[in-house]
Queue: 4 jobs
Job 1
Amino acid sequence: MHSSLWLTLLLLVPVAGALVAALVAKREGRSYVVAVVTASVEMALTLVVMVLYNNHVAGAQTFDFAGRFVLAAPFGLAYDVALDGISLLMVALTSLVVLLALLGARDRRREPAFVAWLLLLTSFTMGSFVAHDLLEFFIFFELTLIPCYFIISQWGAAQRSRAALKFFIYTFAGSAFLFVGALYLGFAHQHQTQGALTFAYGALSATTMTHGTAVWLFSAFAIAFAVKSPIWPLHTWSPLTYAEAPTAGSIELSALLAKLGSYGLLRFAVGLLPLALPTMRPVLLTLAVIGIIYGSAIACVTPDLKRLVAYSSLAQMGFITLGIVTGSKIAMVGAVLLMFNHGVITAGFFLIIGFIERRRGSATIRDLTGLQGPAPVMAALFTVVMLASIGLPGLSGFVSEYLILIGAFATHVWWGVLGTLGVVLAALYLLWAYQRVFHGRAEGDDAAMTDASTGERWVLAPIVVLIVVLGVFPRPVLDRITPSVQQLIEHVTPAGVNK
């Protein structure tokens, strides 16, 4: 089997599952079974890819599972896929999240359409992470907007239409900058080489340009990725959208779509335009620490659990951005690891909040109190996820944030100091929220709330296992990430700035 066929299967299986789910729509429950089976097959394929992945090849200035097929040479269109240690982790996260979203956040309203959109979103997200061509990445990057828009607008809460429209306008407008920048870079490369138009990653990375051109191209890319992540101040769509989306939609947006922004910033802005990084680094470092502190501060006073996770995610995306642009190999490795860990943690948060909302009809903090009494297992599961988000040693969040802060202190100490403040604030707002929701005396509907069912516990089990295992023994994952980060950083930073 050609190695790139494995990645093609990762793209096609969810599309096939979506079509079958739509075809069996008349039989109640069949579409859901099809979706779960499809997501399980996708997870199995991902595990095969992870086993077959050649870390040595990826460390030798190339990518594994590579395959390129030109579709329309005059337009620079090509199907070009490849995988390294960075994208491998994102592929694993995508497969895991969609399976957990289907198992733990089932929505029976017009279920065939709902699961079909989720599976299509999975395919487009996979395509974004394995694309080894800038134009191909942009196409998949844009296609993710369509299923997200319909999931929010058709299955969201009371303000779903407003949230979906705001999300679409923000992200579509931001992507316009990426499109213009991609076209300019592709035509600039064609002009320099006098060859065919191409957007292949390897070709574009060798394009020469002035410092001024690199800066404005980097700015165009960064705007698109900052909206998607989101990064302050282009984040204002996220609290409303996370709160109004259905639980599965909130999981997909926070765990996966946000990572498309940070992945794009790392792979395409930093990777293709290293000449601009010294100029743009202070700007992005400043925006990152503002996002960390601002997100944490607003999370302290937000009245809704979903919005709290949204502002917490803003702070965490600030940490990821901090790690990506420091110029430190340790921090960049930590940023990639935090992309995965944050996806797992936020999926856990939104699943548990969804369980509570399903029972109580509300995720507003003032409507909930004393839940630890009637639902001790749910409280325990929330505690594990919360402590991982805070960065408790021994859990996955600590390893990621520690690596980022160590790298930041080694290269940009004052930004590292400000970033550390976010760790303290995270403990403040998460512990206070836990105290208000789970402590105290439960009365009325709170006292009658049932604990996590066996099925819900099994859905959360992989999240708890990953949080603990990656907190205690992250070495296997770090061994996959580090060679790819080393390869990228050698292209980006001057020799010696890879502490």
Job 2
Amino acid sequence: MNYQQISDLESTYNSGGVGRRPVALVRGKGARLWDSEGREYIDCAAAHGWANVGHSHPKITAAIQAQLETLVAAPEAAYNDQRALWMQELAQVLQGSLNWPDCHIQPSNSGTEAIEAALKLARYLTGKTKIISTVRGFHGRTMGALSVTWNPKYKESFEPLIPGVQHVAYNNIEAMSGLLDNQTAAVVVEIVQGEGGVHAGTTDYFQALRRLCDERGALLIVDEIQTGVGRTGKWLACEHHQLSPDIIALAKSIGGGLPMGVTAWPKRIGSFKAGIHGSTFGGNPLACAASRAVIQVVAEEKLVERAAYLGGWLLDELQALPSKQIREVRGLGLMIGLELKGKVTPVLQTLAERGVWALPAGLNVLRLLPPLVIDKTDLEQVVTVMKEVLSA
């Protein structure tokens, strides 16, 4: 099918809730994408951050194929070998990254579901209802996750959302201290705000926030949905700040391309009562097999270290661009934002015409989230194209 056939057919049935670019992507391999007309792109979006190990990685594909022939879905009410092994392997990573002695793991199918489980757990364990999130924070589109998301454009059409949620300035411990009290169940925060413009908090802020939550009896929820699995040059972005949260949410790249969400927490804070929370497809053997392969690939190919090296190099190169269109370049690992002096959409369109597929993060921030397997030569080409486009 050509572009017109695909777009006409999909437009006949789609809900209209998501805007689409005039491109039909039909194939991906590694850090490359191809559209229906055969045009090739360097992928600097990783499908909104889920393709950390790249597209169609042979080990992920092999794990999925083998499990497809064995057992695709199994209810959480029954034990399963793939789920058990996946939990063990993921727990070992989390315990090392977060200094947890042990942990509980609640699987689901997406980041927004992982946040929902975190919010439910916080209210369940503390008996409190107040939740604090941050300005520019983005945590998902279901009613609970949307409530802790800040941007009004995502929320106004669906209000009233869940009660008891307040937003406070990000990376501002004084503002947080004025709002966080002993009636607070949890604080939800990102280490780097992705959708909010690629803004990173400081170590002083996160360490002070940890102390503040402890003092006032609130649980600290860290959203690692976009920053996790090596994206920022650490397995979890928390590690940059020696931060040990009470609850973390993972998704996107943890499933290797299959839908998966994870809510995890140390056993010391408690657990759900049997029957109070669950998911029909959460922790299905197919997704668990894919995620096990992701964990293996990240370790074997040293993708965390690769993200740290390539991200540092790319940040330096972009900060050196002599463009009057750029206000600031910021980021951590292979998660980089270029704040522009004008709107980002025309720049994204021109980049795509030149073979670079990138993302927005708001109206004027260009976001780069390339697969961690990307070759340095591809990033060199991206820098060359960026220089030409932003100098035009």
Job 3
Amino acid sequence: MVYEVDPAASLVVAEVRRGGSLARFGHDHVVASRTVRGFMSPAQGRGDFYLPVAGLEVDDPALRDEARLDSRPSASDVAGTRSNMQDFVLESERHPFVLVHVDGADPAAEHTSIALSLRGVTRRIDAATRIQREGDRIVVTGRAAIDQTAFGIVPFAILGGAIAVRDRIDLRFRVVAVPLRPTPGARHAARATD
């Protein structure tokens, strides 16, 4: 059976931390996607997902509180961070999606190997995962970490690196999928070919 991601119930969060000798003058940020889309086949241990870069949110107050971030960026700081992320870090016009491919996922295992594609560069990462059935839904939760430089991204820095973004980004996710329901047209077409 194929399952489809329910974007309204799914969330991917990236925690971006500040660094450098003058880090106290910068801000930590939370970048989130509530627009995860894709499909999974639990029986095959496979999933393919995508996150539209244009839909990424920056610094949702509730998510900042969950991440226990102590700095409070202004509205202009948030807008600047979002613009920098879209235009320079992720190059959203050339690479409008973050892609995720999973194969060989095992509900009994505590880790899953994931192929993550950012800015056209794909790297395998190891994610601590939990795969559960909740009624007719599949719920996948987990955590992982990536280094921006592994994807060809130069972490943002100013003043010669005195205020900078750390290379490492911590990820957490909850992806909920429901059984794929055939569309009425697809059912009709299937009957016509029988």
Job 4
Amino acid sequence: MTKLTGFTSYAQAQANFSSERLWDLFEGTREQLNISYECVDRYAKSEQTAVIVLRADAPDEVIAYSQLAARSSQMAHFLKAKNIKPGDRVAVMLEPSLAFYTCLFGIMKAGAIAVPLFTLFGPDGLTLRIADCQPSLLFTNAEKINIVSAQFQASTLLADDTLMAALDQYPEDFQADTKATDYAMYQYTSGTTRELPEAVKHTHRSIVTLMVAALYGTGLRPGDRFMCPSSPAWGHGLWHGTLAPMALGLTIGSFAGKFNATLLLQALARHHFTNISAAATHYRMMKNAGTATEQSYALTKMSFTGEPIDSATEDFIKQTFGLNVCSMYGTTEIGVILVSYPGAEDFEVKRGALGKPIPGAKVQVQDAAGQPCPANVTGEIKVWRKGQWLATKDLGHTDVDGYFFHGGRADDVIISAGWTMSAVEIEDAILKHPDAQEAAAIGVPDTLRGQAVKAFVVSNRPGDAKFIQELQDLVRTRLSQHEYPRHITFVSELPKTPAGKIHRKKLREQAS
């Protein structure tokens, strides 16, 4: 029987998809499955390149499946020697590199739970997450070890040349032995309305359901050479950009260090990537770089996620690459639910649309009473799961042809350049400044990032440029380099709800 990877059209997807057939793409069973084996070890004899790491300040790093299989096996033995047991959490705070992938796959191969952490976290953002997941070990680099609080220093290891050399004493093969229902990874969302972003707990079996997004959201098929410049600390860069394509034995590209659009464009051409999935901001930066026409490309499929893409960038993509860029919509908690079927010649990609539901999914736009909204009427996007409607916390509408369109966030989460940020976390960081009395953060339109963070601050101190810079630097340092207010307005008071909560909706209305 033809595997699902053998079908490329929209009509074939609807006619042939079933969740049962996803298992045909793997060697594991419903009882025994290991992500590291499925993504690495079963391709170890192919001599194919697994990962090409683009580095902003150094030559590309090329990693073969055989090399990664051996190194991750050595890491699994190393962890066993360190008395890491199945179910223990092991955090990884590294840029894409042989060390990062060795740790990531070695942890899961050993039966422990991998916890990828963003390398731009400041001490507050890092400490909150470490305190929550309580890892037995944390792998990081010399630059980042200084922000690890004293209480976690004893369990922190440098993933440097010394560690990699120490792995040489261990065997290059390891027999993974995990149940499909065992936890493989904790993934922290990049921001929620809670003080601490929630860890989404993934089992090894998650790799199977992930393939729905891989097949129909990014359009992955055997033979693709796939690039995703998003950080593997977040859902898109890790699940869609790393695990899904490697589960199909593809060569993938990742980006280490500060993003550079020209470098990415050159690498797309140099390495003959045929498929790319990125944040809308990545495409905007490619457009703004002004160097895209200097290369020729082998791309046949392009997709984006994280936020809507603007029409000027859509025009640039069509003119430069001759392709329609396809939307892929979902959340870390519920996964991908709306796609535009990259590579399907019989699917019309509509400008501004989120696409249509993945095969087998039931998605609706509903009103406040939970009733389906007619076409062109805004409501909340919901998906049917396990006998109930789950809210996405996003607004949207459908058109008469059944395409879904985004209508903004239904809560106070801010999406900027593909990053999902918490207004509460940003406000909390601002209030660490001794001169800040009250603070509120919202998202405002930004031509490059989709949204930018704007903060309203109450203070007795004059709101001059020096004070603004202090607040921005504080948030950058305490939370993350990308997570700071680009705009700050000083006010005498903040609007409040009857319950005394900050009324961000009024602030958004004032800023519009």
